[in-house]
Amino acid sequence: MPIRVLLVDDHPMVVKGLRLFLHTQKDIEIIGDARNGKEALAKVAEGPPDVVLMDLMMPVMDGIEATKKIKASFPQVKVIVLTSFSDRDHVLPAIRAGAEGYQLKEIEADELVDTIRAAYRGMTQLHPRAAGHLVSHVTTTGDSGKAPERDIQTLTRREREVLEKITAGKSNKEIAAELFIAEKTVKTHVSGILNKLDLHDRTQAAVYAMKKGWFS
Question: Residue positions of the PTM 4-aspartylphosphate (predicted)?
């Protein structure tokens, strides 16, 4: 079954662009679109999608409020914020509201598709700048959740290099360029890191590494 996606954005050109690209993905189906949070809630109630691509700044009801209401009534629906804002004042409220992903509209098309697929599988993917704000907040407040006790020696040399780049807020594409390896290879190393550290996503890995002081 394809991943059913609802587009929520008040800019028609953004919606049109997303439709044109996502329509080419065989495992993704666009089931509709909405111009604001209130319309999004109505569309979700009609037939819950698997994933909602949610803008933040919209009339009538903004993306943060809409995300809260969607997650409260339909917790199985995954919400990915897709916005132009990467500052802490937007990132943290979105994550607290329950968003499973936070990406900027400048994102590469293939990375957006990866984020949709990851959210569908229950994983979180954040734009590096958004992840940086979250990591900074967690390390400042001391709230990193129940992180497992793992040693950096369980990672290979290359995995440690990749993790260091992740902790610095680098995207897979940037890591590939800096380490002179293929982006697909970076993804393989990221999967290895998460498996060995018993973590769910790269943000948790970055927070854990910073808490441990591995790259300070």
Answer: 55
CA atoms of 171 and 181, how far apart (whole Å): 13
In angstroms, rounded to a whole number, what is the distance separating the alpha carbons of residues 88 and 40?
A: 24
pLDDT in tens, 162-179: 999 888 878 888 899 999
Q: Parallel, antiparallel, or unpaired for β 3-8 and 51-54?
A: parallel
Q: Which of 93, 44, 33 is nearest to 70 (CA)?
A: 44
DSSP one-letter string for 188-209? HHHHHHHHHHT-SSHHHHHHHH
pLDDT digits (tens, 9 = 90+) for 184-213: 999 899 989 988 888 777 777 877 787 777
Q: For the whole model, what pTM was predicted?
A: 0.67
Asked whether the beta carbons of 58 and 36 are under 8 A apart, the reply is: yes
Instruction: Look at residues 40, 136, 122 and name the one whose alpha carbon lies nearest to residue 78.
Output: 122
